[in-house]
Amino acid sequence: TPFYTALSEATELFDNGNYADAIAKYKIAKETPEYSQNKDNKSLIDSRMALSDSLITWRERADNAFRGIKYVEAMTWYSKILKYNPNDVYVIEKNRDCATAHASDCNSFYSTAEDMYDAGDLEEAKFYYQKVIDSDCAFKAIANDKLLMVDKILESKKNKDHFLTYEWHKEVPIAFTIGS
């Protein structure tokens, strides 16, 4: 029957992540007599259409977050979609891309922070440790510990008095002494 044909096609489109095309097929199914004759059919079609609309919106939000390099946010939306349609190949691949890019960014931020720390550029190190934390990286606890350590070092440097002495004598060369 036309109802079951449209429903079958819509289900296949939905499973493949073609939500707009699935909605079009659900609309065709709604125009058949079987739709209005069976309460279960109405409920199924109406709920699938509403879900398809939501999945389209969520995918747009995920894609926008991905393009904006907000990988954690994008993964949240992609994961939400996968709860309702674990067969959506596009979303599976994008979610994997997000995870890869996020891990790469996290490694880069942490490595840069460590390099800056080793070079003695504590302000830059602090900036990159904070990026690790803000990016919700897997090793954010370590970065947080390092950030606290950097803060203590910077604070201890602020609290030290510095002085400069100028020494001279008629027959002795001039000398400068700097200390804290």
Which labels suit this protein?
180 residues; mainly alpha; 2 strands
CA radius of gyration = 30 Å
Alpha-carbon distance between the two ends:
90 Å
Strand order of the largest sheet: 1-2
Low-confidence stretches: none
Strand content: 5-15%
The average pLDDT value, as a whole number, equals: 90
Structural class category: mainly alpha
Count of alpha and pi helical runs: 8
General shape: rod-shaped
Offer a concise description of the structure:
By secondary structure, the protein is mainly alpha-helical.
Question: Describe it for me?
Answer:
By secondary structure, the protein is mainly alpha-helical. Helices cover 76% and strands 8% of the residues. It is built from 8 helices and 2 strands, in the order H-H-H-H-H-H-H-H-E-E. The chain has helices at residues 2-15, 19-30, 33-37, 39-67, 71-84, 89-118, 122-134, 140-158, and strands spanning 163-169, 172-179. It has a two-stranded antiparallel ribbon with strand order 1-2. A hairpin with a 2-residue loop joins strand 1 (163-169) and strand 2. The radius of gyration is 30 Å and the shape is rod-shaped. The termini are far apart. The model has no long low-confidence stretch (mean pLDDT 90).
Sequence-ordered SSE layout with sheet pairings:
Layout: H1 2-15, H2 19-30, H3 33-37, H4 39-67, H5 71-84, H6 89-118, H7 122-134, H8 140-158, E1 163-169, E2 172-179
Antiparallel strand pairs: 1-2
